[in-house]
Design a protein that fits this description.
By secondary structure, the protein is mainly β. 0% of the residues lie in helices and 41% in strands. A hairpin with a 4-residue loop joins strand 6 and strand 7.
């Protein structure tokens, strides 16, 4: 993000650092960040795609860090794309979920 970083470790977990307001603090979702395949970022939030096709988000709520409203739709995610302040997930059936 603008002021934070995230990396995937060999065991599929994630380490974050930097400004907590930009996603540098992932402690709230740390237990969910297992088997991470990819990480995407907006200006102030991260979205991690897990091996089971689900997504975990954290960071600034106004920049995509909050996905609970669409959590039930975020299954079989194939790709995630990010803009400055939003994410879009492409599902296996070709549909798109945004937040």
């Amino acid at each position: 993000t603008h002021s934070a970083f995230a990396t995937i470790l060999a065991d599929g977990s994630v380490v974050t650092w930097g400004d907590r307001y930009y996603g540098g603090d992932s402690t709230v979702v740390r237990d969910q960040l297992k088997n991470v395949q990819k990480i995407h970022a907006t200006h102030s939030a991260f979205a991690a795609t897990l091996a089971d096709g689900s997504v975990v988000t954290w960071g600034d709520l106004e920049f995509g860090g909050y996905s609970n409203i669409v959590r039930n739709e975020l299954k079989n995610v194939q790709q995630i794309h990010a803009t400055h302040s939003a994410f879009a997930a492409i599902l296996a059936d070709g549909s798109v979920v945004t937040w």
